What we know:
The chain has helices at about 20-30, 45-55, 60-80, 95-105, 115-130, 170-185, 200-205, 215-230, 290-295, and strands at about 1-5, 10, 85-90, 105-110, 135-140, 155-160, 190-195, 240-245, 250-255, 260-265, 270, 275-285, 300-305, 315-320. The chain is an alpha/beta fold. It has a nine-stranded mixed beta sheet, with helices on both faces. Strands 8-9-12 form a three-stranded antiparallel beta sheet. The relative contact order is 0.18. Bound molecules: N,N-dimethyl-L-histidine. The site of N,N-dimethyl-L-histidine has 11 residues, from strand 12. One of its GO terms (molecular function) is methyltransferase activity.
Amino acid sequence: QQQLGPNLTFYDLYPPTTDLLAEVQQSLSRETPSLHPKFFYDEAGSSLFDAITRTPEYYPTRTEVALLQRYAGDIHDRLGQPHTIAEPGAGGCEKVRLLLDAWAPEHYMPLEISRECLLGASRKLAQDFPAVQISAVCADYCQAFTMPQSLSQPGRVVFFPGSTIGNFEPRERLAFLQGLHGLAGPGGALLIGADLQKDPARLDAAYNDSAGHTAAFNLNALTHLNDSLGCQFDISGFRHLAFYNADHERIEMHLECLQDQQVAVGDRVISLPAGTRIHTENSYKFTVEGFSALLTRAGFQPAGCWVDDDNLFSLHLALV
Ligand code: AVI
């Protein structure tokens, strides 16, 4: 535990490292080759994601921000005054600023695996919100960790915006929400964003923006593997593919091989014949009813849902 300023404390829980090379070798050698979406997010990938959120086609970010701006007061009325807001995977801690402004909680607890990103964002936040105590926790929120004693007081409002929940597979999704239920603790709550099912053409456009940022973001996963794990993908030999799969109620992103390739991945060479698709991401889309039922299954009591006028995106409040 390190005091970094009058209102900023840093807790390093040393997230365990995993053997990424072995993971990539395995997932690329399966009958349907895949890569985990976490490989999108190196520095270049995070900037590309920012660029995506500003394209006219990618509606989720701006719609969710507008919902937070419009309904922060209503949500507060439903919830009462929160003491602590906890945000797993807080990244740049941008959206929570709206809640800190509107709710003025005593305490904010971002949890983030990237130490650099966490420290940068929480330093700025501590300056901008001197009345909020910030406990910055470096941890992998997808794996179990023990909360430091001084932070163990339950009754937190867990904030999980962005429809990141849509990037989990159904099996992991429920377990993850149960984990958030534990993080909130008795007397706590969850405020979570979930993207909604809609006209597939609108969804397809959001993941095929005309400026090409989503394509660059998808292809960057391979550049990231080349840079960080010494893989030898020829990026020009792949193309971005994204489409709505109505049966599975999800956008799928793939990287399609344009010609036969032999790619060195660590001590292995992986054969990818022309036409092979590496499945890089699923982004599930929900209905309001389906998502509320999911929250109930995870142990929460749904307590409110706010949707924009065009039915694009939903914000759910659920109590522990
Ligand atoms: C982070 N996540 C919610 C985004 C999504 O829409 O599923 C990631 C993304 N992939 C392509 N565009 C944006």
